[in-house]
Design goal:
The chain is 34% helix and 28% strand. A hairpin with a 2-residue loop joins β34 and β35. It is built from 20 helices and 39 strands. The longest helix is centred in the middle third of the chain and has 47 residues. The chain is α+β, with helices and mostly antiparallel strands and 786 residues long.
């Protein structure tokens, strides 16, 4: 709705880009978007670990991003091919063949989105871009001016589906190609600098580098980096850079393709990379990450200066950002998304997405990139010149890898390696510290949000606030599952709140008694279970709750266990699902303490309510009625306002109890309480003083006739109300009512009570089933009798 309203166009848009995290029902979301934008045939996109717009950015939550694009006289063609699970190369080749049939040229702007997550065999397999691009080149004869992304729905790589025009699918590749006068210019943002000399891959097997410079790859890197960094530190940290220009040319970030380490192969002494393109003969450097973001703004400025020089009008921006570059995982102090927002402002519509794979031309040809942001600007200009485009492709397609490789000396090389080792060690320490600080920040943010909720809201009849807390825990702490268990009277626990489960998984524990180990009931000691622990530890609980690794903390209220909070994950994958730590335990303990406070406050609220109300009817009791009425009188009646003090008795109520029994008598009093709530306002003070005696205090403008009419209608209504005895027999009752007014008859509670009581006595003395207004001239000497 925001995207449509900002465009201020009454016509349906031509193209919709829709991305969302894995937490959504994608079909419901798609239908809602289609209905809003008025276009159900051209919706493309899929999963994203997070979203960036002109105003906000976020990840690890419920983010949705929608871009509505009006192409006017221009065109966008969507080419969709499935079958990624069978063969990425064949899928790419079929895509390339269809692009060829569509007339795609080397300079044609193409944006590629594909499903990067495969969990069909149980384990995670990331589908990388290298083989898809190889297939496109085979099918098309060349690689066009291509940018894009491999999509994933969250940092846990939960499978998501794709929006494929007029339908929803999965494991497909989508290529969006545009008219000749639409351009897509991009800037590559990875902020990495070479930190070593060049090395050569001398043996590889797919994504596994087995030898570097003729030595076992893992041993070579270990020896070069020294003892400060260990192989377990390499995944998601060790970065190689492939320079697609001359080795001795000035450093240009756009010419470097970053390659990120996914893991280590201890058995083969190899290093596992994300992309499988570092084959034998590939020369690379070890890269050092920039922990600052000051490199981003100048690159954006240069890109817009180019557009201005070429007299092209930018109309849309897509920022494709590696999911690992979030501040929570990348170790930087500030989100690069924040810098992007600041640079773009609201000048041009922006849609950004956190992805698993980024694709852009790095060094003369498109390729998959790691640890990279790709800033793509859509603009309109003069149609491209076909002949010039072919000439440029012929020249640019020749990469310059390997030129001038021999110019070095052993001493300079060793010095560079020592410096590289120190730089990377400092990088690793800085990233670890930043990551820990970010986890603390997220924890404090969660606690602050929860504290605000507690101040503003009650727990709710269905424990809504506990459900909200469980959702926040999963999002803020990157947990997959959270449950809150409450004790029953048999020493067991049942799950009251659960988040992160499917309906089928919930059936395992719904209404099931769960008996917990004594260790989990220790109020002083939280329980932390990780992959380091024996699989047999709490095996039954882990199976029942479908949580492999978790933190369990009791929720304590007045030295008793009021609940058990359990939150955790089913996998440990650095850095997105790193091993649960004491930092996480401390945050969950703090949340538990706040939950205990919430439960204690709720119990106090219940106790206060019981102290203030009549148990049978739920109305105020005599003490609370006196306190509230006295408080209102103390504040005084402003202007011409007056207040009525109304005493109400049920006539012959003792006979009802004697004839029909006390249960029927109680039901009669409840029915009268309901009638009083219906007849009087929510702001009026209504109470049961005891037995069959009720009272109402209400303020109103100076004219007393409305209250007289209301009381008269109450008497008539009650007289005509059928009441039912236990044997089904109906009977009727009546009311005797006395009314006094403030300030005419007094300004204190006791004065008004006494005079209303006298008027009530007059109603009874005159035959009951009526109301009487206190009259000072005729009643001042009357003493009410019980």
């Amino acid at each position: 709705m925001q995207a449509v309203s900002q465009a201020k166009s009454k016509l349906p848009c031509d193209l919709v880009l829709l991305f969302c995290t894995a937490r959504h029902d994608q079909e419901i979301l798609r239908n809602a978007v289609a209905q809003t934008v008025g276009n159900s045939n051209n919706i493309y996109g899929g999963g994203a670990a997070g979203i960036i717009t002109n105003d906000v950015f976020g990840y690890a939550g419920d983010q949705v991003g929608v871009a509505c694009i009006w192409l006017e006289d221009d065109d966008c063609k969507a080419t969709i091919v499935d079958g990624l699970l069978e063969s990425e190369v064949n899928t790419g080749m079929r895509l390339g063949q269809q692009l060829n049939a569509n007339g795609i040229r080397p300079d044609s702007p193409v944006m590629l989105f594909y499903d990067a997550v495969d969990r069909t065999q149980g384990n995670l397999r990331l589908i990388m871009a290298t083989w898809i691009l190889e297939g496109i080149e085979k099918g098309l004869g060349f690689l066009p001016d291509l940018t894009g992304a491999g999509l994933q729905g969250d940092h846990m790589c939960t499978p998501t589906r794709q929006y494929l025009g007029n339908k929803i699918g999965e494991h497909s590749a989508i290529a969006l190609s545009f008219s000749d006068n639409i351009y897509i210019d991009h800037a590559i943002m990875h902020g990495c600098q070479p930190a070593s000399p060049y090395y050569t891959v001398t043996k590889a097997d797919g994504p596994v580098i087995l030898e570097i410079n003729g030595k076992p790859a893992l041993a070579f890197i270990d020896g070069m980096l020294g003892p400060e960094l260990k192989p377990e530190d390499y995944p998601f940290f060790l970065l190689f850079g492939i320079n697609r220009s001359g080795q001795w040319e000035s450093f240009d970030e756009d010419n470097y393709a970053s390659r990120l380490c996914l893991g280590v192969d201890l058995e083969r002494n190899g290093i596992i990379m994300f992309e499988p393109d570092m084959h034998a003969g590939t020369q690379f450097q070890i890269m050092s990450r920039s922990l600052g973001l000051d490199y981003i703004q100048p690159k954006i400025d240069r890109l817009f200066e180019k557009l201005e020089a070429e007299k092209r009008d930018p109309f849309f921006i897509i920022y494709i950002n590696c999911a690992g570059r979030c501040a929570g995982y990348g170790g930087v102090e500030m989100e690069d998304a924040y810098v992007i927002l600041k640079a773009v402002k609201n000048d041009i519509p922006l849609l950004g997405l956190y992805t698993g794979v980024e694709i852009a031309s790095g060094g003369y040809r498109p390729r998959g990139l790691d640890w990279t942001g790709v800033f793509c600007v859509f603009s309109k200009g003069e149609p491209r010149d076909l002949k010039k485009a072919c000439e440029l492709y012929s020249a640019d397609s020749k990469e310059k890898v390997g030129e001038d490789a021999a110019f070095t000396t052993e001493g300079i090389k060793k010095l560079a390696e020592r410096n590289a080792a120190k730089m990377l060690w400092l990088d690793a320490k800085s990233i670890a510290i930043r990551h820990e600080l970010e986890q603390k920040r997220l924890g404090f943010s969660l606690l602050a949000e929860f504290s605000v909720d507690l101040r503003q809201e009650s727990i709710g009849a269905d424990g809504e606030i506990f459900t909200a807390v469980a959702q926040h825990i999963n999002a803020a702490l990157n947990m997959q599952r959270t449950v809150l268990l409450f004790p029953d009277t048999f020493g067991a626990f049942t799950v009251a709140v659960s988040q992160g489960y499917t309906a089928e998984e919930k059936e395992r524990f719904t209404n099931k008694q769960i008996f917990l180990d004594e260790e989990l009931l220790d109020a002083e000691k939280p329980v932390l279970v990780t992959a380091e622990d024996d699989e047999a530890l709490f095996a039954n609980l882990r199976e029942t709750l479908s949580i492999a690794y978790f933190i369990s903390v009791p929720v304590i209220v007045e030295n008793r266990i009021a609940a058990i909070l359990i939150t955790g994950r089913n996998m440990e994958t650095t850095p997105f699902l790193s091993r649960l730590s004491n930092n996480d335990v401390e945050t969950v303990q703090a949340v538990s303490a706040l939950l205990g406070y919430a439960l204690m406050r709720e119990e106090l609220d219940v106790a206060n309510k019981l102290a203030q109300t009549d148990v049978l009817t739920g109305l105020f009791n005599r003490r609370e009625f006196e306190l509230k009425t006295t408080e209102s009188l103390r504040k005084g009646l402003t202007g011409d306002k007056v207040a009525a003090f109304i005493m109400i008795d049920t006539d012959f109520f003792k006979e009802v109890n004697d004839k029909y029994g006390h249960l029927v008598g109680d039901a009669t009093l409840k029915r009268l309480a309901e009638a009083l709530l219906d007849f009087f306002r929510a702001t009026d003070i209504i109470a049961r003083l005891g037995g069959d005696e009720f009272a109402v205090y209400c303020a109103f403008p100076s004219d007393i006739s409305p209250i007289i009419k209301r009381v008269s209608r109450l008497v008539q209504f009650w007289r005509a109300t059928p009441l039912i005895a236990s044997d089904g027999v109906t009977f009727n009752s009546s009311l005797s009512i006395g009314i006094s007014f403030a300030p005419r008859d007094g300004i204190t509670y006791n004065e008004l009570l006494h005079k209303a009581d006298i008027a009530l006595y007059e109603s009874k003395r005159n035959g009951r089933d009526q109301f009487t207004v206190y009259d000072e001239n005729t009643m001042k000497d009357i003493q009410p009798q019980t």
